[in-house]
Amino acid sequence: MIDPDTVIVGAGPAGLACAATLLQRGVQPVILEQADTVGSVWRRHYDRLHLHTDRGHSALPGLPMPRSYPRYPSRAQVVAYLERYAAHFGLRPMFRSKVERVQREGSRWRVDTAGAVSTASVVVIATGWADFPHTPRWPGQEGYRGKIVHSSNYRNPAPHAGERVLVVGFGNSGGEIALDLAEANVDVTMAVRGPVRIVPRDLLGLPILTWAILQQWLPPRVADFLDAPLLRLAVGPTNDLGLQRERKGPLQMIAEDGRIPLLDIGTLARIRDGSIKVRGGIAHFTGDGVTFANNPSERFDTVILATGFRPDLRPLLPDTPDAFDAHGLPRVTGQATGEPGLFFCGQRVVPTGQLREIGIEAARIARLAAEHVRG
Ligand SMILES: Cc1cc2nc3c(=O)[nH]c(=O)nc-3n(C[C@H](O)[C@H](O)[C@H](O)COP(=O)(O)OP(=O)(O)OC[C@H]3O[C@@H](n4cnc5c(N)ncnc54)[C@H](O)[C@@H]3O)c2cc1C
Fold this sequence. Notes:
Strand order of the largest sheet: 7-18-8-9-14
Shape: globular
Helix content: 25-40%
Bound molecules: flavin-adenine dinucleotide
Radius of gyration: 22 Å
Largest sheet: 5 strands, parallel
Number of helices: 9
């Protein structure tokens, strides 16, 4: 049994940021990480991934990203940065320590891993979303003879050479994976079920994130109204491409539905030139493909589900149901919860950049946690 003041679960960006900000407040946390490296999720993302948010707004507290990095760093550069971050602050997570249960024990928290039990007065849950891929099912799927993979298992186009591939979903992963396949001359189609929002990654030379940050104090509807003419000009018409435009503006969509618009880095041009085909939602699977809601059946060798993640943390924290909404997402992230000493970091979708938000939340959690530890 070890009894640290503070346990952080997860050594991704959120766990590392919380650890660094706690250290700066004189609290020495123990970090428990199920993998054997820091930033394990970033190591597994698809090869071509670059940050969609700019370097200046994606660094964690206390250490900027290197000036030599481009505006949008690559996946490998993010991994290298996370390693440097851990080294810079002397963070040494306990690897291969999967936390199985976090439960209240008197005024402390009992944290169970397979091999050990610890108790702490503060627990920060920084477990991200990666362990919860959302894999919807359709009628006829069990009879389909092709492959079905979630986007989190996609690496690069090589295994798909010569295939007909269907990418389901029009978020950032779906858009970029379809682009990746099209650039490798793979026959690629996107299944797009409902209306979509597309925004350019840069607007008038500025990262779109900068615009969102500048406008964060405006009501989303007002900011969307102001931005609409410029965005329309930048994106151009899309209805003729089989893409119906979402009625809500991008900021309203994020605020109300937690859905991030597609930050376009070339997908739209590939749809326009026909190298990415667009169809409606899937009605059902056939033996060798799918039937779309608005089209006849087509054959596909592989279906890639870019359908996002649905984290549910209730099994990890079975005794604190009030901390979660009906889907198992924490009601509060980056602030005091109703449970003294329990914090969540990085669980909320924001228009102003997830990594930036993680840094802001970590600083706030460190202050509240340090106060709690000192009683
Ligand atoms: C494809 C993709 C691209 C993204 N691009 C951007 C971007 O450009 N800009 C941006 O701001 N954000 C981006 N994000 C969103 C977000 O910033 C990242 O997902 C970020 O990695 C979240 O950090 P995290 O620490 O919360 O979660 P993760 O990076 O998922 O780290 C969580 C860690 O917790 C560990 N863990 C989980 N469960 C347990 C357990 N029970 N016990 C012990 N350890 C556990 C995991 O192994 C992992 O190491 C992107 C997300 C994805 C999926």
